[in-house]
UniProtKB/TrEMBL annotation:
It comes from the Eukaryota. TPR repeats lie at residues 158-191. Its main location: nucleus. It is found in: Nucleus. Keywords: Coiled coil, Nucleus, Repeat, TPR repeat. GO terms for cellular component: nucleus. InterPro entries: MS5/SDI1, TPR-like_helical_dom_sf, TPR_rpt. Signal peptide: none annotated. PANTHER family: PROTEIN POLLENLESS 3-LIKE 2, PROTEIN SULFUR DEFICIENCY-INDUCED 1. It comes from Ilex paraguariensis. Belongs to the MS5 protein family. This is Protein SULFUR DEFICIENCY-INDUCED 1.
Amino acid sequence: MEGSSMKMSRGKKEKKLSHVIHKVPSGDGPYVRAKHVQLVEKDPEAAIVLFWKAINAGDKVESALKDMAVVMKQLERTEEAIEAIKSFRSLCSKQSQESLDNVLVDLYKKCGKIDEQIALLKQKLRLIYQGEAFNGKPTKTARSHGKKFRVSIKQESSRILANLGWAYMQKPNYMAAEVVYRKAQMIDPDANKACNLGLCLIKQARYEEARSVIQDVLHGKLPGAKEIKSRNRAEELLMELESFQPPPLLLNLPGLGLEDDFVDGLDKLMNEWAPNRSRRLPIFEEISQFRDQLAC
């Protein structure tokens, strides 16, 4: 009896230690079993089956849905993950919808659904300038790599704009990408977004403007400019610039692809967060003469 008791005690201790090491939640429900299979046994296919069981049983549906989508993405089952979130997000709380949208954006990016990604990012920005994001609060708690941190609504806006700019670059619609990257920089500037903005200008043959933006990175004028990755990219872009001839006359401008109500909403954010700046960025003044040609 004593030996059996010791084995049970040792088993409990090992199970508790496993929860701590692998960050598996405690308990014995379907969701906990799914996490154990995912993180400890490292069997993603079996984990997906158990996540489905957790969702059907109503056990931590939000967490099960997001975790299952992540595992499906790792297994290149991205389309299935997208359909799962669309089908079952109605079972999740209102507070969880923002984080589910973040998962969806990542899934759209993974499988090349650029138009869907753009539409969802625009919707997230609309929620911000309508005051509905973060449940009306100025900050929220986010999690990355197991660590919690606070994110402000301004930081989130800049992050979403940067993602939107990257999506437009994949279209490729460099004029629209430039617009949103400039607005992102007005809110929360950094070297990475500056490099992307510089690339947008290069693609539009606006080489001197691109040079100025890229040199701001090389001269350390922006947050993150001292990071090796940012400096290397800025140097590569500058070398690329050196190979170009003077810009040709730009004809057949591409459609901007930004609706007027969307641009006006972003302008409201600029008025609130950067009141001393011009209401509209110079790019809007530059393209106003081509308004009839632009697909707004």
